[in-house]
Amino acid sequence: MKQNILPAIRLTIMTIIFFCVVYTAFIWVIAQAAPANGNGETISVNGKIVGYALEGQSFTQDKYFWSRPSAVNYNAAGSAGSNKGPTNPDYLKDVQSRIDSFLVHNPEVKKENIPSELVTASGSGLDPDISPDGAFIQVARIAKTRNISEEKLRALINEHIEKPLFGLFGPSKINVLKLNITLDKLN
Questions:
Q1: Strand 174-175 relative to strand 129-130: parallel, antiparallel, unpaired?
Q2: Are 54 and 40 in contact (CB under 8 A)?
Q3: Cβ neighbours, 10 Å, residue 15
Q4: Is residue 136's pLDDT more than 90?
Q5: Mean pLDDT, residues 69-91 taken together
Q6: SS3 at position 169
Q7: Which residues have C-beta within 8 Å of that of residue 132, sequence separation ≥ 6?
Q8: Where are the domains positioned within the chain?
Q9: Hey, CA dihedral for 185, 160, 56, 29, is it positive or negative?
Q10: CA angle (146 as vertex; 144, 152 as ends), nearest 5
Q11: What whole-number distance in Å separates Cα of residue 155 and Cα of residue 183?
Q12: Are 99 and 137 in contact (CB under 8 A)?
């Protein structure tokens, strides 16, 4: 019995030291190489912080590009999905309500052309990005509201497309907050 207990205690102590000290220090060093030293990127306009690059925000006015819906009302303290399955009646009602609202504000769009990320909440409830298709489909509404040419808006979207990491990992995406800040600067 003594043969088994002492090695188990040593292994436990070594594991605690590794994960509590070595691993934590390693991750901290890597974070120091990240933008803002791993503290997240704040986005400022005229010296005032207006948001965070990795946190979604609600945009509902017709003059802005809309974000992906949030299951937690964009509350970072309560990051979570809805935990409702794709056949849940409440979930389907929420999605249909979002589709109806989108179509009211974008009457030139057909229901089948709406990108899914504009009517379904992300897993975290805080996704700051939409696909290029999600931005392009909103161009007509924003051009009409702001009296800006659609070509100018498409060029703006193309400037904000973030390509996949190394051209391989993940989809192309657009940070909605950054896009809307640049959009405000156009006027």
A1: antiparallel
A2: yes
A3: 10
A4: yes
A5: 81
A6: strand
A7: 157, 158, 161, 172, 173, 174
A8: 1-39, 43-186
A9: negative
A10: 85
A11: 11
A12: no
Token pair for 145: 């509201």
Ordered DSSP codes for 16-73: HHIIIIIHHHHHHHHHHHSGGGGT--EEEETTEEEEETTS-----STTS------TTT
Whether pLDDT at 130 is above 80 = yes
- Tokens coding 5: 């207990």
Q: Tell me: the pLDDT tens digits for 26-55?
A: 998 888 887 777 777 778 788 887 777 778
Q: In sequence order, what are the residues at sequence separation of 6 or more whose Cβ sits closer than 8 angstroms to the Cβ of residue 80?
A: 71, 72, 124, 125
For 84-124, how does the pLDDT look when each residue is reduced to its tens digit (9 = 90+)? 888 889 989 999 999 999 999 999 999 999 999 999 887 77
